Amino acid sequence: MSNYVTGIEEIGWGVSLVAITMVLHGIGMVWTLRAVNTLKARLGPQLGLAASLLILVVAAWLITVSHLVEVFTWAGFFLWKHAMPNPSIAYYFALLDYTTLGSEYDLPSNWRLLEGMIAIAGLMTFAWSTGVFFAVAQEFQDRELRRT
Fold first, then answer.
1. Which of 16, 56, 94, 118 is deepest in the core (most CB within 10 A)?
2. Taking the model in full, what pTM does it have?
3. Average pLDDT over residues 62-78
């Protein structure tokens, strides 16, 4: 087993990828909230249970798409740096590490630090997504409780 030494390139790319992930997530969360507000306006002021649940589902879909785009960014980097053999494995690896599940695949030793950094990015964005989804869900719950 060889000794692992963290390199400045690895740290620089890791910090950059985390920043890119956060920017993409910010855009995705703004789009999600705008879409939810647009949908609520189109459905009218008196939302029923089905319409309210539709809004929650749309919010969940858009949040999920945001995360999948962010994972694609990491997978693209791994392919660009020849750290993964093909797009399918790169995306699978990135998705599992982003969600902190971990994977049976490993990055080459000169990129090993990114396995933890992608998990950091995932944890931060999932926390942010939870806040956004909670805000949408809280409004739904308040509306339903007022109705009964």
1. 118
2. 0.90
3. 98
